[in-house]
Each structure stands twice: as C-alpha cells, then as structure tokens.
Amino acid sequence: EIVLTQSPGTLSLSPGERATLSCRASQSVSSSSLAWYQQKPGQAPRLLIYGASIRATGIPDRFSGSGSGTDFTLTISRLEPEDFAVYYCQQYGSSPLFTFGPGTKVDIK
Amino acid sequence: EVQLVESGGGLIQPGGSLRLSCAASGFTFSKYAMSWVRQAPGKGLEWVSGISTTGGSTFYADSVKGRFTISRDNSKNSLYLRINSLRAEDAALYYCAKWSRYDGNSDFFDYWGQGALVTVSS
To answer: What is the per-residue pLDDT for A61?
Structure first.
C-alpha cells in the first residue's frame, strides 16, 4: 500500500506570498497518477491539478504542480485571500485504488 | 453544469444499515466511472468505493469490504452505496464523486457532490 505524506501540516503565510506544499509517496508512483485538491470549510473538495502538473478546467495559473517518483509539489505563486484552505494530494494505484494524503492547511499569518 | 446531489444520510444505530443515493446531471452518466469518498468530522479524505461505467466492476477500500455495496442505475443517472453493519468509525460525510481518466492512466475526481452526513449513535 502506498502512503502519502504531506508537509508541512500547516503553512502560515500572508496574501501575496508564495506557498510550496509537499506530497511524498512511500514508494515511487507514476506522475500521471498524482492529483491535488483544495477544500474550504463547509465545501466539497475541488480538483486543482491532475497528472502531477495539468491544471483542471478553470484553475488559475498561479497554481502549479510538479514532481516525479516519490516527491511532488503544489505551488501557489501569489496567495489570494480565497486560497486559504486545506490542500490534499491523491494517488491512483493498486490497493487501495485511491489514496489521499493527510492534507496541508494554508492559513493566514 | 455538472451536478451531483447526495441523499439518504441520517442518524443510524451501530449495526444498522442505510442506502445513500447520488443523483447525477449535466454529463453523460453512463460514460463515467463513479466513486464514494468519505470524510469523518475534522479529518481528511478517505476513498471508500468505486464502480465502472456499466457496474460490472466494483472496488472497495479494505476498511469497508464486505459491509458496503456500491451500485448504479444508468437509466436513472444514479449512484448508490448500501452500508451494512454500521460502526462508529463509519460516521462521516459521504461524497459522491465523478471519476475521470486522462490519457489512459491518470485517474482523479473532477466533480464532487456536497455530501450526505452519516451519524452513528445509539
């Protein structure tokens, strides 16, 4: 079973700053199987990135994804007020079919 | 506009059963696999179950295997999750999610419902 670890657990930043979120897999995964989601309080998750680096429809270009093997990164180039939320990485694999990381909370400093 | 609307949640006693439903609209339901993802209060996301376009293949997390049954009715654009032998740890918000695939091997959930809340208590 592949385990995803996200760091940091909480990231405290100010609007306009750059956010760098990490997702590490316990073993190498295909880049195409890595996705990122954003979840705000009281809302369903929203797909941001799939295939490690492909932005989903309607996602602003300040969001970018990168990485390969066991290390993946979600970068928000300049934080907007609406970007303060929890971010999850997700991997598609064998068993279980889908695995989520524990999440990184980006809050206002 | 894609819409996924869950229903059927509620307060259930331990050991009890319920069926969650998800009504889909805004896309060709029969062409997409679907999944259920749950989130316990204050916790992260946990994939629970998935089903192929025809319903011929079903998939489960080990934590629910043998107790949960996923199904779909393409004529009604609906997804279901039957939950039996409810445990305290099954209490969560259950999301219905559209399962999409890109380029043959990139799988993800591109649309989510607002969730159905399942509370387990005697």
So the answer is: 97
Share of chain B above pLDDT 70, in %: 100
Mutating which of A1, A57, A95, A98 best tests the B interface, going by the most B Cβ atoms within 10 A?
A: A98
Which single residue is written with the structure tokens 């999944």?
Answer: B35
How far is residue A86's CA from residue B59's CA, in Å, rounded to a whole number?
27
Indicate which of A43, A97, A99 best probes the interface with B, i.e. most B CBs within 10 Å of its own CB. Answer: A97
Question: Nearest C-alpha of chain B: how many angstroms from A85?
Answer: 13
The answer to whether the CB atoms of B108 and A92 lie below 8 A apart is yes
| A36-92 confidence digits (pLDDT tens) | 999 999 999 999 999 999 999 999 999 999 999 999 999 999 999 999 999 999 999
Q: Which amino acid is at B46?
A: E
What SS3 state is found at A52? Answer: coil
Q: Give a three-class secondary structure readout of B20-68.
A: EEEEEECCCHHHCEEEEEEECCCCCEEEEEEECCCCCCEEECCCCCCCE
Using an 8 Å CB-CB cutoff, list chain B residues near A103: 44-45
pLDDT in tens, A4-23: 999 999 999 999 999 999 99
- Residue B20, min C-alpha distance to chain A (Å): 17
Query: How far is B43 from B63, CA to CA, in rounded Å?
Result: 16
